[in-house]
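Methods: example folding runs. The two proteins below were folded one after another, and each record is reproduced exactly as written to the output file, sequence line first and structure-token line second.
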Amino acid sequence: MDIVTPEDPVMTARALVLHDLEQTGVADPVSVSLLEDALSQRAWWLEQWPAGRQFVVGLVAQDVQDALLESAGRWPLCTACEEATHALYVDPDLGGPDPRWICEEAGLVVAPVGGL
């Protein structure tokens, strides 16, 4: 997938997380607004800590995941297990580098962020 553009980690995060929202059928006006809010906050965060570029994608994914938990429930649901009642989590915890969705119950890497 050639969505990643290291020149602008915020726009890269937008493209990758939006892709995952779309692929999981959750890309509605509410979730896209939550994504835009997360991007705005992380753009400010990145201005304060430019060395954090490699963490932005994973942190935005976590921000959206947390916001959706409060408004719509768990996201994204695990696709690796037969019972998809639990969510995937971003690994590494700080969001980067190379963030991926993992199933903590099965101990499996399911997809990179942006690869669902």
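Second run, written to the same file directly after the first:
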Amino acid sequence: MSILLLNGHVVPGDGSPELPDTDVLIEGGVITAMGKDLPHAADTRIDASGMVVMPGLVDAHRHVWQAPLRGIGADMTLPDYFSMVLGRALSAYRPEDARLAALLGAVEALDSGITSVFDWSNTTVTPEHTEAVLDGYAASGLRAVVGHTVPHSEADLKRLAALDGRISGGLAILGPQFGSWEDGIREIAVARELDLPVSMHASGGPGSPFPRMYEAGLLGPDLNLVHMNAMTPVEARMLADAGVAVTVTPVVEATMGHGVSAFGTFLDAGGHAALGTDVVVNAPADLFEPMRDTLRFERMRSRTMYPAVQVLSNATVHGARSIGLGNETGSLTVGKRADIILLDGLSQPSGGGVVASLTPANVHTVLVDGHIVKRHGLLVHHDLTALRTAGLELARRALA
């Protein structure tokens, strides 16, 4: 099947120049050409005049299973979160609940223009739960890296490592900062044997294990450190030098008092942080607010007019690289998979305008792997209202 996006304002997402009045040709799920007035009798033609055509947003850190719990934690402290969400609610999730939650969270992501996500999937507690999560993603249409949270579940990890396509696997671990050094290093080694990306929550700062890992040659681009609010400039240079990914979740970090965003510290060291939504118990389920939050804070921190369009790259190409999808998605590049969104609502379309002014309401069309999953502002395959209603029933039972 071929799709031709006509006459859009193309924002490649990788820092290359924007391309006004440009066509994008998609064949077999792959971007095969970009240019003006492309001659092609495509199966489907979409008029993108007046709209931004850009890579789908990449959410590099999200606990997708918490979608049914949206909004329960407006004033929740971190200890409250551990008790109510990771304790009470998580323990109540059956495999069928894990499937519903993954499907609901994935569809909410697609509705907001997110086409790829790293799911820190706490619900992968049994093989049956893992199967249910994978089934939910298969039904959703989202591109997902499922971060398994049980490192000793050998069969599950091998199954995730064998996935090849829109859904792939990863490992989500406690890590050597909040767990033991021995366990963390062993779990990273297991992931590397299976060629799985590794994500871990971390704060960095004095006493963190990452300088020791750097000296031992244990850091690398397959590691994604989430938050890092206490990261020092010296530590940031080590991480950037080793190619380690850092993901910030500015809305949740500020709301829950984690500390100042590490975005600027990592940027000063030559690194480019990815962005994540993290948890929807106290934050929106989209990346528009995290992008704006990052832009505002970086302008205040640097006392410069930091370009808005550069933040867009943190939510696209840098996000894709941070979760192991850099060769597949994250930029509008010939040869990459066609994960693309069309955004309306700007009188003068631009990447900077997307960051500064738009919301999920401006997501007009979404394609994942060359398949149209949202068009004219409406989801094609899913009833989000019905999914949310089912999610409310799940939340009431899980929190009872």
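Comment on the second run: Residues 64 and 96 are 15 Å apart (CA to CA).
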